[in-house]
Backbone:
């Protein structure tokens, strides 16, 4: 994000400081909206091509900002530019998840967040100097040159595809023996590329485990970016009357804080995740229940008493709420006994408490949006026909 001197933009485009600040606010709003779309697109088409499309859009909108004749046109192109910029944060997080195991993913995410936290604060330093010397449009010229001469060529020549499905699929064709040596290859290939509705992830924001973190994040980031929006107008006015360059310098302290705090926070997340038990609540935790579930469906010779083991089997299946596709794979894999165990567990359906507390939530999980479309729909239908066949 660049911080332009509001008086310079206002005088050039004959707009007041409020409209100039609105161009930044709308830009940040569309960054958030764009994230909802770039994530599903990166999951469906791959990280690299999504990066490339977003970079071309960013390049085009930056050119539009350079030649904006009115504040309305500038606001419109800034909004489109925000949609484009969202691709780097959203797709980048996908790359982190692709390439780093969960045990160190917090540290990796902390390092990844440094540009997001430091860039908007160091950018005004450069933008302030450019604006003061060559005018506010020079900031967009700089962004356009950076996108066209550095970012896009790097994406095409250096950045690899990291989407695990695409990587394993390509390796399977080039070197099948090497692909078989990957322990997770079968599980990865069982999750074909699909486009999920952009609004589906929003439901996770209201979950009890996520809502407090979401509120904290919205408060802290909202406060930071609100200050970024208002800061230039306040600092350029009386009694401060700072120049564009000095306004940029005033952001340095926040940039240093982000540079230091982001990796520390990431490391703290890894340490906390390793020590804190997951959702114990007086019962076996999610990892133990998942382990039991997988053992039961793979061991066909093990005794399975429907009355005794059925409810616990369904309860363990509910621990797959974060990945219903993986649950469907476990239940439909022909080499395992998932569908047979599930059919036996459903024989307890005459127990009202079992139906209310476990069976209905389980059926709702199978009926979620992620399984009701694309390549998962037919396997789900086959599973339901199998377990309800007399």
Residues:
């Amino acid at each position: 994000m660049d911080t332009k001197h509001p008086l310079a933009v206002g005088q050039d485009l004959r707009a007041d400081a409020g409209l100039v600040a609105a161009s930044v606010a709308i830009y940040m709003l569309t960054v958030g909206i764009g994230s909802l779309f770039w994530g599903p697109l990166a999951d469906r088409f791959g990280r690299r091509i999504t990066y490339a499309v977003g970079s071309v859009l960013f390049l085009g909108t930056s050119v539009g900002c350079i030649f904006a004749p009115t504040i309305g046109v500038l606001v419109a192109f800034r909004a489109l530019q925000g949609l484009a910029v969202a691709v780097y944060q959203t797709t980048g997080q996908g790359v982190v998840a692709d390439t780093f195991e969960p045990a160190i993913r917090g540290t990796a995410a902390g390092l990844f967040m440094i540009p997001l936290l430091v860039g908007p604060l160091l950018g005004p330093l450069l933008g302030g100097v450019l604006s003061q010397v060559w005018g506010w449009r020079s900031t967009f010229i700089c962004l356009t040159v950076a996108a066209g001469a550095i970012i896009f060529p790097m994406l095409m020549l250096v950045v690899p595809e990291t989407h695990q499905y695409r990587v394993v699929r390509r390796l399977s064709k080039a070197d099948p023996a090497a692909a078989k040596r990957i322990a997770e290859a079968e599980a990865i290939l069982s999750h074909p590329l699909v486009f999920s509705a952009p609004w589906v992830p929003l439901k996770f924001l209201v979950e009890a485990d996520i809502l407090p973190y979401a509120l904290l994040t919205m408060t802290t980031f909202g406060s930071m970016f609100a200050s970024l929006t208002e800061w230039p107008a306040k600092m350029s006015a009386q009694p401060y009357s700072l120049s564009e360059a000095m306004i940029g310098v005033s952001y340095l302290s926040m940039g240093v804080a982000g540079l230091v705090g982001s990796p520390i926070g990431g490391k703290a997340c890894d340490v906390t995740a390793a020590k804190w038990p997951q959702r114990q609540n007086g019962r076996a935790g999610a990892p133990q229940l998942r382990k039991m579930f997988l053992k039961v469906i793979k061991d066909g010779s093990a005794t399975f008493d429907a009355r005794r083991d059925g409810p616990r089997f369904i309860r363990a299946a509910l621990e797959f709420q974060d990945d219903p596709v993986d649950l469907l794979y476990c239940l439909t894999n022909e080499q395992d006994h998932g569908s047979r165990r599930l059919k036996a567990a459903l024989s307890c359906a005459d127990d009202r408490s079992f139906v209310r507390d476990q069976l209905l939530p389980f059926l709702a999980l199978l009926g979620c949006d992620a399984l009701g479309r694309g390549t998962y729909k037919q396997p789900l239908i086959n599973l339901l026909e199998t377990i309800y066949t007399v």
Notes: Residues 105-134 form the longest helix (30 residues).
